[in-house]
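User: Round two. Same drill as before: sequence, then structure, for each protein.

Assistant: Same drill it is. First protein:
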Amino acid sequence: MKNQVYIILGISLIFLWGCTNNSNDISKSLINSDFNSKIIDSISINSENTISQETFDEIGNNLMKNESIWGIKKDMQSNNVIEIIGYPDEKSTAEEWGSDGQIHQKWTYANQNVELDMIGAENSNQVVNSIYVKSPSDAKTSRNIGIGSNITDVTNKYSNEIDKSQTTEFQIVAGTIYGGIVFTFENKKVTSIFIGASAE
């Protein structure tokens, strides 16, 4: 009888120990997931979870068409780009991408760390497909957001276009990754800006 009691007691202790460990793991998971929620809720984002994916797609497409760096926008022709900021310091080899069947060429403006992905045959009137700015740079969006801008400045300027589900302390997506603007952060300061489609 004593042996049975000891066995039952041992099984109970093992069960309780397992539950305690599991609850600790769950608590850690909740703390980690709660961390980004606090960051998101502590900054000004007006976008609600009820906004549909289709709406964010439309928002992203509008941002891609209307947002700019130095007045340069997606689909702007290369001759207009050159009129605004001159010839690039470097051009990559033009190559066809399997993902879209288009010929792409990277234009690099080294002094400002700005890169343009241009579409079209080289020596033709290419068009801007995407714009990428990295640190250090003085380049700014039309809403005056640039490298070094505070995360609260970004969320205030793009509050109605930010999807909370894509927002962390390290990245904010205005629109979607399939079209829009991606801001990356370090210590709540902007370190890069991408305008375009970052995923197919």
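Second protein:
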Amino acid sequence: MHAGLDNKTERLALKAEKTARARLPVIQRAANDAVNTGVARVPARPIPFTASGFRTLLKWADIVVACGLSWYFLALSGATLLSATVYQILPFALIPVVLTCGMRLAAAYEFGLNKRVFEHVLSSANGAGLSLAALGLATYWLYPTTLASWPVLAMVVIWLVINSLHAHALAFARYGLRAGWLSENVVIVGATPNARRLIERNRATKELNIVGIFDDRLSRAPMVIGKTPLLGRLDDLLTWDRLPEIDRVIVTVTTDARARVKSLIDRLRILPQRVVLLLDLDGFDPESESLARIAHSPAAYVSGAPRDTRRALSKRAFDLICASLLLVAFSPLFLCLAWAIKLDSPGPVFFRQSRHGFNNQIIRVWKFRSMRHAPETDRQMPLQTYAGDPRITRIGRVIRPSSIDELPQLINVIKGEMSLVGPRPHAVGMTAEEQSVNSIVGDYAHRHRVKPGITGWAQINGSRGPVHTKALVCERVRLDMEYVNRSSFWLDCFILIMTVPRLFGDCHKVR
């Protein structure tokens, strides 16, 4: 009887101890007032991509180095791509393929502050060395010595260069992670034990830059968890002026509180940022999984989608190349239009207006001035254009129907603020039927999950120009979200090809 009581008491004591360990370290209780969000530290990111983007860039750097050196040693062997046979070229052509496979199997693209340079170089040396050694042995076995010596020499040199590249890349990645350049800016919703564990485990790797915590229950929440401040309630997050600089919102509220989780998610869905429900960290293995990967789990996404780094890099490269070529090609037209605008009416040639960009960031969009000069419209234009608008100049009536006035936005594309294809950026404070457009449709902010574009899916499907009614706003958002969900390289090409005929086909539309 006494033994049973003792066991029960012991179980209760162990349960109480476990609960005590899981409790948040309360440093100071928050008052019922909203916490000042000014204490948040959101580091500037001079490099326009995160650690996952850096890994993708390094993979492509390996491929470029391997292809370049393979071609160089092929030329040294006395052969050229045009004169050599497939038999001669094959071992050189296989080097980049074999190298890439070996590096992936050796996990040579994983970075972290807790990973030493020697360990990373050992991974890359094994990944590249074993795969290239196997290819070298096969080459010596299948080819005569005179032909095999050049590709094998190329493999040795490539192995040395790749190891050196990875050593320097890891050193840069560690520096970038410490400085916050390669870390995603995230905020946590819910001052819970899960939040505390995430913060503690992130302290060593710095894979995430956890800016702060938001929780509606301020009276129960600590002011600071592991040097991460409590910034306020959920309403403070939704109205925070630094929100456009946040990449991801992580909800750490326990899934047992289903009603609270549902309420939080419903309120957070209006944000353009990716919203992640972090279910559990108890099974987290820091030796095999990264915090960023745990929080990137597609199954946990409740709003938005995991970032496709390869797609983002290829789209950016496409934008840069095409925008630069178009800017050069249209430069004579730009000079003629600038001269005509100056002669037509007083004021500057270009009109720069504040508009919503990626993640709701405010960007300054370039246009040829097509309306009477009014400095106040640079910041906000609640009144959209309409048929017979007296503000439009004579030159404006010529260039607006065909959207020629939008061509200077190629500058925004080169700067990285816009893309060639994407939802059109709307002016700050734009209204329809005397109501703010972002309050008409619940999914309005989701159109800002991608960069705005000079042209887009909505524009080639007839939704172009001002949206004066709620129905037009809903149709524009529907088409924009259709593009966001279907976005691909080939869809972008189709939209670009169809833009010119569609613009001239509906030039009667009010703009």
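The chain is about 50% helix and 10% strand.

User: Perfect.
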